[in-house]
Each structure stands twice: as C-alpha cells, then as structure tokens.
Amino acid sequence: MNYLSLIQLLGGVGMFLYGMNLLGASLERLAGAGLEQTLERLTNSRLKGVLLGTAVTAVIQSSTATGVMIIGFLNAGIMKLVQAVSVVMGANIGTTITAQILRLGDVSSDNILLSLLKPSSFSPICVAVGAALLLLAKRHRTKDKASILIGFGILFMGITLMESTMAPLKESAEFRSIFYMFENPLLGVLLGIVVTVLLQSSSASVGVLQALSSTGTITWAMAMPIVIGQNVGKCASLILASIGSKKRAKRAVCIDVMMNSISAVLFLVVLYAYQHFIGFSFWDAAVTRGNIADFHTLFNLLMCLGMFPFVNVLIRLSERLIRDNQPSRIEQELRMLDDMFLKTPSLALGQCKKAILSMGETVDENFALASELLKKYDDNKMELLQENERFLDRSETVLGDYLVKIGEHNPTPADNRLAAEILHTLGDLERIGDYCVNLAEAAEMNAAQNVSFSYTANRELEYMTRAVSNIINTTMDAYRSQDVNTAFRVEPMEQTIDILVETLKSKHIERLQKGVCTTKSGISFVELLTDMERISDHCSNIAVHLTQRLTPAESFDTHEHLRKMHESVSDEYQALCRYYESIYYEPVKNGTFDNISSLPSASEWKGPAFISGGEGGFAAASPAAGE
Questions:
Q1: Which among 60, 116, 156, 252 is least buried, having the fewest CB atoms inside 10 angstroms?
Q2: Is residue 522 within 8 Å of residue 529, measured between CB atoms?
Q3: What is the C-alpha to C-alpha distance for residues 394 and 392, in angstroms, rounded to an integer?
Q4: Pairwise CA distance, residues 292 & 298, whole Å
Q5: What CA–CA distance (Å, rounded) separates 238 from 57?
Q6: How remote is the C-alpha of 501 from its chain's centroid?
Q7: pLDDT 10s digits, 395-434
C-alpha cells in the first residue's frame, strides 16, 4: 500500500462523510408527515424493525450503509432510538446474506439484477439521476429528493472507494499468511477486528476468510474467533459515521458496539467452555465456505435473539454512557405529548397548548436572532436559528399527529374548537419560523455579497423590526393569558405595520431613484419588508382564531370579524392605531430617528392600557406612564 492508496483511502472517507451529511440534511428538509409516518408504520414494533433492517441490508449487501441511513434518520429527528436499535439488529442479520451468496460462488458476475443492487453499481446511477433532477427541478421538494439520491450515491461511492483501495490486500500472500499466525482465540478475535477495520466491510472480511478456506488449511478453531471478531470490527464504520452526529445517533452506535461486544464475549465463553469440558468433534476439521457462512449467520441470529429482550436496558445504559444534561426541545415536547393523556382529551389539549407556547418562544427567539443577523452576520447565531427552525418543523409534525389521535377519543364540542384553534396556530407559527429563516438567509447573502444599507434604511429597519418583534410578543401574550383584550391589540398593530411597509417601500424607491442605494440593496430591502409584513399577517391570524374560540357566539366568521374591525373604526381601535403609529410610523414618515433608543423592546413593551367595557367589550384608556 503506497502513498497514492492512502490518498484514495482518505478521499473515500471524505466522500463517505460528505454523503452522510448531505443525506441527513436533505432528509431533514424533506421530513414531512409522509416519510415519518412510513417509518413509523415500518418500525412501530421491534419485530418489524428487525425485519426492515434485515431486508434493506440483504438488498444493498452492506450493514454499514444501513447503519449510516439510521444515523441520518436519527440526526434528522425522524426516527426514535428504540426504533433504530431494532433496525440495527436486523442489519446485523442481513449482512450475513453476502456470505451465503458467496458460498455458491461469484453469482453476481452473471446476474444483472444482483450486480445492479451492489452499491458499486447503483451509486453512480443515484448520482446521475439525482444530478439530473437537481438541474431540472423547480420545486424545493423535488430538489430535496434529488439531494437525497446524490447523498446516497456519494456515500456508497465513498464506501466503494475505501473497499477498492484495500482490495489488493486480499490477493497479498503476506496478508493471507497473517491468518495462520493466530491460533489463540483472543488473537483470532483481534485479527477479525483489524482486518474488518482495514477493509471497511465485514462482508469483505468474511469473504477473504471464505476464499482462504478453499486451501483446506483453515480449521473451525481458527475460523470461529475470527468471524466473531469480524462482527465486532464492523462497528468501526458506524463509529466513524457518528462523528459530529447528535446524541441519539451516537447512542445507537454505542448500543450496536455493546451488542456485538457482549455477544462476542458470551459466545466465546460458551464455545470454549463446551470445547474444554465436552469437545466438538469437528474442532480441528477444515472449514468450507458454507461452514463459515452458516456460522456467521448463526452468530448474528443468536445475538439478535439474545439481545432482543434487553433493548430498553441497552438504551438506558447508552444514556448513562452518553449523557445529555440538556435534552433537546423536541425531546421535552415529546415527553409532554404522552399517549397517557389521550384518555382525557382536555388534558391532552392542555399539553398541546404548552407545546404551542414553546413554539411561540422559539419563534420570538428566531426573529430576535434574524434581526441581530441583519445588523451583523454571525455563523453561531445562524446555527442556533437553524436548530430552532428544525424544532419548529418537527413540532408541527408531532403536534399535528397528536391532535389526530385526540380526535379519536370522543372530544367534546369545546375540545374540538380548541383543537381547531391549536391546528391553525400551529401552522401560523411554523410559517412565521420560515419567514425568520428567509430574513436570516437574506442577512447571510448580504454579508457574502457585501450588500449594505444606508444610514436611513438601517434606522427604518430598526423601527420595522421593533414593531414586528412587539406584534409577535403581543400575540403570544394573548395566547398565554387566553385574553381577548390582548388579542384585540394585534390587529391595529398589524394595520400599522402594513402602513409602515408601504411607506418604507416608497421611501426606498426614492433613494434608488436618487442613486443613494444600489439595486442589490434595494431588492434585499424590499424582500425583508415583505417577509416582516407576512409575519405580522400570521400574528393577526393567530389572534383572530384565539378570539373566535373565546367568543361565546356560535357562528363566528373570521373575515367578517376583521372587516367590522376595519370598517367600524371604534374608539378603542382608533386609539390603538394612533398609539402604534405615534411610536413606529410617525418617526419614519418624518425622518426623526432621535428617539429610536427609547423604543420599547419586546420584553419591555406592554402597549396602552385597556379595560373591559362598552358594547364592543373594550374601552380605551390613556397610555400608561412611560409608554
């Protein structure tokens, strides 16, 4: 093995890791209810998970590839750890199919179907098809699917490159002679581990051993420890794949290592205890390809059967070994949405409301992060924002599924109204999160292309971001307190933001015409305003749906409600509009930015005081002191 082979090996590792990351990121973007529900159906029991893992690995003839898929699913948050463990168990069984095929000779060379199913054959096809789709597709979902294909292809091409780099070792006489040097069972296990790590494939390692058995010099006593070691050595590829992965993915790999290691120790103890006290008649007999294949299959089957009842114990042990002192938000949410609450729909809906509030806090945080990124781009803040967005996307799926389950337990009419409102709010919050991502990506692009705004434009954006931050905060305050009075304040603020957006667009067009701003900055500025306006629209939707549920009237038309608010122009509505315009619109209209430092932040702002009363249920009062 020369330096060129080493470079190729490192290139294979790089392709392997990049393919895994591309696959995980694409799956995460595409992880809607369809993919998740399919996986849920296929792995909703341990037996199904084992069968799935066996079938997939038997088809692609690589337990490493199956394991990497599982790591990708875990990183994307679309598979639970208990599901992943059963699939990994099945993958250990499925990987023995290769040895069973090899016992019949090289059938894959004459069989087109089997040849196409090998990673070395279908990986270029995946990349070719994926690249074509990526170039031709216009929809984001199609592009995500194309990226998944490319990720699969690059991943398998990396595995193939690693295997091909190490392939010459199979024909090396010095390499083969190593097998005859290890008659001690512990050294035999060590040899199996080392060879498998070097070849990056337990199937290839077992294949080498099967090839050597044709000489008639490999005995059962030599072969069995080596096969056991090969099963432990195959964990190395998954350990490599888990580098940089999330805690749950690392725990899955840890469980795989524990299963193979514990099984290896127990198998060796039983094997050599029986040989010592009773003895195998075939112990010193030469093994055949079929013998090695059968022992390989037997070991993995017994390992699966032996470990199957202890899956929960292994999970708890992995959690102790790989601690996560701060569980992710989605893990906390999943704990809140426990099936035990479903028997009492009102309690289950109460848990949903808590999850909605958690989403609201995340949306508030993401808008604050996006606003900071617009001022000064920071990779760490961008990473945090993207992590929050993943939480919002997963929350939408989890909550949506949970609400469907609640509907199956005979909720009352009041519960149905609450469920409908939560479902509307859920969608609006997720869309607000998407617009926050748009703002952050615009900030990233501006930083990359050195796009900057004028002093006036920056001051105007400051007023705009403060106004939007306050409408988000007010909306969530209304939801938290379940207060119609607070919800009533959202629509006047949304109207003020609409007026503010139109004014800012007009002013920016004037600056463009005068040459104060560039075309790039002008387009970016307008896009930012549009995203912020849509955020305020979704806040209005949340407030209206909350008002609909809290209003005792049996028939409530949301469009009619908004029309009356705008057309009747009640005293309280006018008072609110004047108040918000005096804070955000008037300074921008007049170009007086001296008081921008005195603008209330989202955490400080309370708005004008209102008390119940009057025909409409509201009565205006003067703004509180300091407001």
A1: 116
A2: no
A3: 6
A4: 10
A5: 14
A6: 34
A7: 888 888 889 889 888 888 888 888 989 999 999 999 999 9
Number of C-beta neighbours around residue 167 at 10 A: 11
Tokens found for residue 183: 């008659």
- State the Cα–Cα distance between residues 28 and 22, nearest whole angstrom: 10
C-alpha to C-alpha distance for 22 and 149, rounded to whole angstroms: 10
DSSP 8-state secondary structure symbol assigned to residue 58: H
Q: For residues 88 and 68, give the distance between their C-alpha atoms in angstroms, rounded to a whole number.
A: 10
Report CA dihedral (272, 278, 281, 285) to the nearest 10 degrees.
20
Q: What is the DSSP letter of 61?
A: T
Question: What's the distance, Cα to Cα, between the start and end of the chain in Å?
Answer: 76
Whole-number Cα distances in Å, 370 to 346, 379, 429, 466: 36, 12, 16, 12
Count Cβ atoms within 10 A of the Cβ of residue 77 and give its class: 0-12 exposed, 13-18 middle, 19 or more buried: buried
The whole-angstrom separation of Cα 344 and Cα 309 is 32
For the chain, give the number of residues: 627
pTM above 0.70, yes or no: no
In tens, the pLDDT along 23-73 reads 656 765 665 544 445 555 666 677 888 888 888 777 555 677 677 777 777
- Number of C-beta neighbours around residue 380 at 10 A: 8
